[in-house]
């Protein structure tokens, strides 16, 4: 009787110490992020936005195009014979007010803006993948923990059922194990569904098709953050966050656009050079030729004309564009100042969340999981001595399982909070 009871306890408790211990990693979160950066269509679209900005920068450096003009005139179609004129002209517009360098500055800021937007999209994508990875890994670790307990319960039920048939155990013990086994199976089904949903969310975040293989590591998630102060994290956020770079670049670009709009209110100058050759033929009203026909006189003129053309416009003609650019500048500056304030608060909130999660995990590892294992050992010894019932053992096993699941959830929260802290700071903290 004692030997059978000891064998049952070995099944019930023999695997408790390995809960959460799983084979080595298959794909890391960093590998998923790198793969997503290379294959994600949204990232590729933002990269095309950068290529567009570079093309606009190249176009902004073009100078005004000169015009070559050629004309030919004749009076014959209108009955005026002998009148012909040929001319060729060159017209060169000249920008005033420094329009070209101001236009180039606006285009350069557009390139910087596209680069900052690409970095910002990568920052948000990396955080989303890390958070979804933590959710998926935690979910599958919970499933594995349940699978171990479910396997133990099935084997224990088989042994108890055999003992009951030999009248070596009470039928109540078999019924208790059956209920516990079914309850564990139901819990396993729920957690398995959550794990599958978390894996789908991870695939969505990483833009990984369902046909591609995805083997996750179910080892404990890495979530260590170097020893830094909150003020240092705030300083890093102010210096390196891509969204702050976007806001600052927008403010600088709007200032450059305002200066360009003001310069465009100044009229451009067009200089020209034109050569004309005129040929005229007419009758001499006095002299005649020998046969009495009129004497034809010919006149040829070569004329060179130089000119300057200036549009008659005032700055008021472009005042609407200037006002619009000034409004964009003010809006960009206001958004930038707002973001600088909220970025610091985001870092503070992420830091508080990470510190709370880190302390929670430390408590679980130091004073919860180990204590739960020791309590289970004491309950087992009391059961072996006949001082407690099988129901007490199952209840304690249930509490230990809940402790394991809570510990896994705490580690997952620590990994998510570390990812959130990296997102708030604007880059990896390793």
Structural features, described:
The chain is an alpha+beta fold and about 425 residues long. It has a single domain (about 1-425), classed as Outer membrane efflux proteins (OEP) (Up-down Bundle). The chain is about 65% helix and about 15% strand. It has helices spanning about 1-15, 30-40, 40-60, 100-165, 170-205, 230-240, 240-265, 320-385, 390-425, and strands at about 65-75, 85-95, 270-290, 295-310. Strands 1-2-3-4 form a four-stranded antiparallel sheet, with no helix packed on it. α6 (about 230-240) packs antiparallel against α8 (about 320-385) and α8 (about 320-385) runs antiparallel to α9. The protein starts with a helix and ends in a 5-residue tail after the last helix. The model is unreliable at about 1-25 (pLDDT under 50).
Stretches where pLDDT falls below 50 for ≥5 residues? Answer: 1-25
**CATH class placement:** Mainly Alpha
Instruction: Calculate the mean pLDDT score and round it.
Output: 82
Dominant shape:
rod-shaped
Describe the oligomeric state of these chains in a short phrase. Answer: single chain
Helix-strand string: HHHEEHHHHEEHH
Q: Quick one: CATH superfamily?
A: Outer membrane efflux proteins (OEP)
Major sheet description:
4 strands, antiparallel
Rg over CA atoms: 42 Å
Query: How many structural domains are formed by the residues?
Result: 1
CATH topology: the name is: Outer membrane efflux proteins (OEP)
What descriptive keywords fit this protein?
alpha+beta; 13% strand; disordered N terminus; Outer membrane efflux proteins (OEP); 66% helix; four-stranded antiparallel beta sheet; 430 residues; 9 helices; rod-shaped
């Amino acid at each position: 009787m004692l030997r059978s009871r000891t064998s049952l306890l070995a099944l019930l408790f023999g695997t408790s110490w390995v809960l959460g211990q799983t084979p080595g990693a298959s794909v890391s979160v960093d590998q998923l992020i790198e793969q997503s950066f290379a294959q994600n269509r949204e990232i590729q679209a933002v990269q095309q936005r950068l290529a567009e900005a570079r093309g606009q920068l190249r176009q902004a450096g073009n100078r005004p195009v000169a015009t070559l003009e050629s004309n030919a005139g004749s009076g014959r179609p209108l009955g005026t014979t002998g009148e012909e004129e040929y001319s060729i002209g060159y017209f060169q517009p000249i920008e005033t007010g420094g329009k070209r360098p101001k236009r180039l500055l606006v285009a350069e800021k557009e390139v910087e803006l596209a680069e900052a937007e690409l970095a910002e999209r990568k920052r948000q994508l990396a955080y989303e993948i890390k958070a979804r990875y933590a959710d998926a890994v935690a979910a599958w670790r919970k499933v594995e923990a349940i699978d171990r307990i479910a396997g133990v319960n099935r084997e224990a039920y088989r042994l108890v059922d055999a003992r009951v048939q030999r009248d070596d155990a009470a039928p109540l013990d078999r019924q208790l194990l059956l209920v516990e086994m079914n309850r564990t199976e139901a819990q396993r089904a729920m957690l398995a569904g959550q794990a599958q949903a978390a894996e789908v969310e991870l695939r969505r975040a990483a833009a990984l098709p369902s046909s591609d293989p995805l083997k996750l590591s179910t080892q404990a998630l890495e979530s260590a953050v170097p020893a830094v102060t909150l003020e240092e994290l705030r300083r890093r956020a102010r210096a390196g966050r891509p969204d702050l770079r976007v806001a600052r670049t927008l403010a600088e670009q709007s200032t450059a656009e305002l200066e360009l709009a003001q310069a465009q209110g100044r009229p451009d100058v067009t200089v020209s050079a034109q050569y004309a050759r005129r040929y005229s033929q007419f009758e001499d009203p006095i002299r005649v030729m020998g046969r009495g026909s009129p004497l034809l006189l010919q006149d040829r003129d070569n004329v060179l004309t130089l000119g300057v053309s200036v549009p008659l416009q005032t700055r008021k003609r472009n005042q609407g564009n200037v006002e619009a650019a000034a409004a964009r500048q003010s809006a960009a500056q206001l958004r930038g100042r707002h973001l600088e304030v909220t970025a610091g608060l985001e870092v503070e909130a992420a830091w508080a969340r990470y510190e709370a999660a880190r302390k929670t995990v430390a408590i679980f590892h130091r004073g919860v999981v180990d204590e739960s294992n020791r309590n289970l050992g004491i309950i087992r010894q009391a059961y072996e001595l006949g001082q407690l019932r099988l129901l007490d053992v199952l209840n304690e096993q249930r509490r230990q399982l809940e402790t394991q699941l809570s510990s896994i959830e705490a580690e997952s929260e620590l990994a998510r909070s570390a990812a959130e802290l990296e997102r708030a700071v604007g880059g990896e903290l390793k």
